[in-house]
Amino acid sequence: SAAGSAGNTADPQSVHENIMGLWGALSAGATLTLHAAGWLEGGLTFGFEKFICDIEAVQTLAELCAPVDASAAGMAFEAIKGVDPGGHFFASPHTMERFDTAFYAPINADLSTFGTWTANGAQKAEDRAAEIVRQTLADYSQPAGCAQAAERVARYVADKRAAGGAAPLTG
């Protein structure tokens, strides 16, 4: 299946279009979804900021589709028994053991209050995504063996060109 967007930039329209395409693919039972991240103008262009926003959507859907832990600990039967009516689970050992990993941690979404968001510069999603892209590129280091692999590919291409490449297509 495929998602994608006809939008021109990483704005709410293009992200919404992609999410709706992803929901359609998910609802249809797709096991492989192409064009799910970064597509703009119906696939004519790619946006790095759009890629970050779309990956957020893909990861959120993946979290929603994750299997439910139906073990005794996952269902929290003992924790439920340990809290009286009208009580809460916030300080229970069961909650404390799982709190850091129980929820999806977004890579781009800002879940702060409006006041906090405003005080922190009121950065829009596409601006936060641009910063993630900049930081990712700044932090990049070439993997071990990458230069050798590039040399092997260059030699292979040169050898195939010298051999005449593929026969021309005739119409």
Main attributes of the structure:
171 residues; 2 domains; 2 strands; elongated; mainly alpha; 8 helices; two-stranded antiparallel ribbon
Can you walk me through this structure?
The chain has 171 residues and is an all-alpha fold. The chain folds into 2 domains: 1-66 and 114-140, no CATH class; 69-109, no CATH class. Helix content is 51%, strand content 2%. Strands 1-2 form a two-stranded antiparallel ribbon. Strand 1 (39-40) and strand 2 form a beta hairpin. The protein is elongated. The mean pLDDT is 91.
Task: Give a short summary of the structure.
The protein has helices spanning 12-27, 48-65, 72-75, 77-81, 93-98, 114-119, 125-139, 146-162, and strands spanning 39-40, 45-46.
> Helix count, per DSSP?
8
Q: Largest sheet, order of strands side by side?
A: 1-2
Which residues form runs of ≥5 with pLDDT under 50? none
> Which class do the helix and strand fractions yield?
mainly alpha
Query: Any idea what the shape is?
Result: elongated
The count of DSSP E runs of length 2 or more, i.e. the number of strands, is 2
Percent of residues in helices comes to 40-55%
Order of helices and strands: HEEHHHHHHH
For the biggest sheet, the summary is:
2 strands, antiparallel
Averaged pLDDT: 91
Beta strand %: under 5%
Distance between the termini: 33 Å
Domains, number? 2
- Output the radius of gyration: 24 Å
